[in-house]
Amino acid sequence: VVRAAVLSAAGAPVRITDVTLAAPGPAQVRVRLAAAGVCHSDLSAADGTLAQPVPAVLGHEAAGVVTEVGADVDTVRVGDPVVLNWAPACRRCWFCSRGEPHLCEHALDAMAAPYATLSDGTPVYPGLGTAAFAAETVVSAAAVVPAPAGLPLELAALLGCAVLTGVGAVTRTAGVRPGESVAVLGLGGVGLSAVQGARLAGASPVVALDRVAGKEDLARRAGADAFVLLPDDPSSDQTRAVAGEIRRLTAGRGVDCAVECIGSASTIRTAWSLTRRGGQCVVVGIGRRDDLVSFGALELFHFARSLVGCVYGSADPARDIPLLAEWARTGELQLDLLVTDRIGLDDLPAAFDRLRSGIAARSLVLFDQG
Ligand SMILES: [Zn+2]
Ligand SMILES: [Zn+2]
């Protein structure tokens, strides 16, 4: 029996209660969580934007220690520190065999199978397959990556979603090269990671945009050369002023690559308008199914831009988490900068509110390791 944050229905508040975990089956492991980041995708699952069978324990950006292994597990042992991977690749499907493990057909299979029960026996599903807002979880052995040595688990947790996604969006999805200009819209955990990814890729200038003026300091510490305030009301006049500011910073052309980390039609349109002719507009934010983005048929031809979706930073956690950890070790990647609050599991509902308001970057749930 472990304490967990349970979502009973889309739109309902999460409730802290006890769940009973099943023993790890074949090819599964039990993990005692050390820390779990509160990601916008958890909010999207909680409000129904992302489909998630319920009741569910959310949480997918986490690290902890293996406490039990099922049969046929030879990749990790009891006592190993691990980072969770919410989209484990099967390594066998068509996408995996093409070197696109982030698009694996089976990446989200685990979220559809109950992994625990409530006190009345109701089956509980693991949010995004990982169920990390709980003292312990049971996941597929493929869903854990050995945690890098020398990195505190609370910072290693961030590598599992925000950092992998944000850095990957710039370095892998867009393949930004040294000297190219990058704009990042939305400075949560993913956006601040994208800013750092742009810096790591040698981009120049790196422009950070957010609706909250108070994010400027964080943006500059993450490596942004300039900060531009996004208007609350995306009316054409105000957005034109933003585009004008970006053109002033890029010799009149617009950026080589714009990375949208918000997930709304209006900010996708803004990101698109900041992109130079022939440049790339990468959409990382997860928006609503009914939030439609429109493009004029002529502008698609005239601007010759690419509009690119981004899943999990086009990354492979098994390959990329060690790389990111090395950058963290050398100080080129600042993980602690992303953490704006350290909280207990009971404070999760308040952390969701802060995330909704856009004022926080990452709230990190810390679990008692006793
Ligand atoms: Zn996430
Ligand atoms: Zn696959």
N-to-C series of helices and strands: EEEHEEEHEEEEHEHEHEHEHEHEHEHE
Silhouette = globular
How many E strands? Answer: 18
Compute the number of helices: 10
Which strand-content bin applies to the residues? Answer: 25-35%
Unreliable spans are: none
Level of helix content? 25-40%
Distance between termini?
A: 16 Å
Q: Largest sheet at a glance?
A: 7 strands, mixed
Supply Rg. Answer: 20 Å
Secondary structure category: alpha/beta
Bound molecules: zinc ion
Mean pLDDT: 95
Describe the structure.
The protein is of the alpha/beta class. 29% of the residues lie in helices and 25% in strands. The strands form three sheets. Strands 3, 5, 6, 9, 10, 17 and 18 form a seven-stranded mixed beta sheet that branches. Strands 13-12-11-14-15-16 form a six-stranded parallel beta sheet, with helices on both faces. A five-stranded mixed beta barrel has the order 1-2-7-8-4. Helix 3 (153-173) packs across helix 4 and helix 3 (153-173) crosses helix 9. The longest helix has 21 residues, at 153-173. The protein is globular. The two termini are 16 Å apart. One zinc ion binds next to loops. The site of one zinc ion has 9 residues, from helix 2.
Brief characterization of the structure:
With 370 residues, this protein is α/β, with parallel strands linked by helices. The chain has helices spanning 40-46, 94-97, 153-173, 189-200, 216-222, 236-249, 265-274, 297-303, 317-330, 348-357, and strands spanning 2-7, 15-21, 28-37, 56-57, 61-69, 81-84, 116-117, 123-126, 136-140, 144-146, 182-185, 206-210, 226-229, 255-260, 275-283, 306-309, 339-343, 362-366. β7 and β8 form a beta hairpin.
